[in-house]
Amino acid sequence: MELYPFKSGVGAMEPIALLGHNICVHYTTSKYYRRVVFVEPLVPFQFLDIGALAAQTTSARTQCTNLENFDGELSQIRWWPLDDVQARMWLPQTNGKMVIRNQQVPIDMNITVQDPCLHLTEIFIWEDKVPWIEAVNAADYTHGAVRFRGMGFRYATEKCGDNTVQRINNGIEACVHVSASGHAGTVE
Amino acid sequence: MLVQSPNMRLGIRKVGAYVQLAAAGVANAAAIFQVDNLATQLGTRSFKVVRLFGFNNAGANTLLHIGTGVGAGFVDLMPPIQTINGLNFNYMEWELPQIQAVAVDLTAYPVAATVDVGVEVEVFF
Questions:
Q1: For residues B64 and B88, what is the distance between their CA atoms, to the nearest angstrom?
Q2: How far apart are CA A16 and CA A76, in angstroms?
Q3: Is B93 part of any domain?
Q4: What is the percent of chain B with per-residue pLDDT over 90, rounded to a whole number?
Q5: What is the ipTM of this complex?
Q6: Helix-then-strand count for chain A, H and E
Q7: Is B25 inside any structural domain?
Q8: CA-CA distance, A25 to B63, in Å (whole number)?
Q9: Which residue segment(s) compose the domain that B40 sits in?
């Protein structure tokens, strides 16, 4: 069974790891080698409501505190806006997600028809290092609410021993690497 | 197994505000769907009308023009629709021409007031 991030399926979502599997969480410049000791699914749920947003305005950058995990835990979340906004994400607060050189790619309602399994929205959240979202209401009228929903998997993990890390780095043991933050851009 | 295929040409269905076109004539054409056109949004939006519904409250049969712009800038996007005094009308997607408007609001005016109008559109972005 192949498990890896951003996996596309026919309306489905799969975990990146099962019990006993190794994962390596990359958060900015840090790496956390962990072994999964518990995994469970998170059915679609609302994690953020920015509230009313006036016509043709951008909301404050809002922290998604409802996506916080316990210590040593990782979550794998696919998300989409319920209301008609373009949403830009930062993870952490000053590090944009989905950024290409000239623009930051937002997610809007159309994602549910253009990418039904939402694999292109997949993010990883390490412990309480949650994303921040800005919403743009481009309409000529106020939105009464700006809500976001997510779904995915929650992983409880324990630290890998030094031997295991060495075996992973030598290619002897398998490990799924995931990035749990944005990337500021590559400099040669 | 639930099977969903991506459809890159499927829009999001939205509804315009309920508008009472209380003033007749092209100079009084009013927006019946306002498209998102904020400078800071990413991409340009277009839409097509998939449902047109309303009520003739004019006291006489009258034509309803659907298009873009107002006054001398008004452009019909479809032939005018005859509305019957005191009756509702309700045209569905397969009864309407597949006209599209890009980045501009959809406007309408009656030849004789008042006609109440609402639209549903499919927005592409």
A1: 13
A2: 8
A3: yes
A4: 78
A5: 0.81
A6: 2, 12
A7: yes
A8: 65
A9: 12-124
pLDDT at A11 over 80: no
Q: How many domains does chain B have?
A: 1
Cβ of B42 and A141 within 8 Å? no
State the residue for tokens 């019957």.
Answer: B84
CA gap B47, B123 in Å, rounded: 4
- What is the structure's pLDDT at A60? 97
Rounded to an integer, the average pLDDT of A138-163 is 96
The model's pLDDT over A98-109, given as tens digits with 9 standing for 90+, comes to 999 899 999 999
pLDDT tens for A148-157 read: 999 999 999 9
A:B CB pairs within 8 Å: 58
Q: Residue B74 belongs to a domain with what CATH number? A: 2.60.120
B34 touches chain A (CB under 8 A): yes
Interface of A with B (CB under 8 A): 10-12, 56, 58, 84, 86, 103, 105-106, 108-110, 113-117, 136-141
Q: What is the pLDDT of residue A188?
A: 65
Which residues in chain A have Cβ-Cβ distances shorter than 8 Å to B125? Answer: 108, 110
Residue B115, domain member (yes or no): yes
Greatest extent of chain A over all pairs of C-alpha atoms, in Å:
59
CATH of domain A41-151: 2.60.120
The rounded mean pLDDT for chain B is 92
Q: Is the pLDDT of residue A52 over 70?
A: yes
- Whether B6 is in a domain gets the answer no
Percentage helix, strand, coil, to 5, in chain B?
Answer: 5, 45, 45
- Six token digits for residue B51: 């449902």
In chain A, which residues have their Cβ closer than 8 Å to the Cβ of B42? 86, 103, 105-106
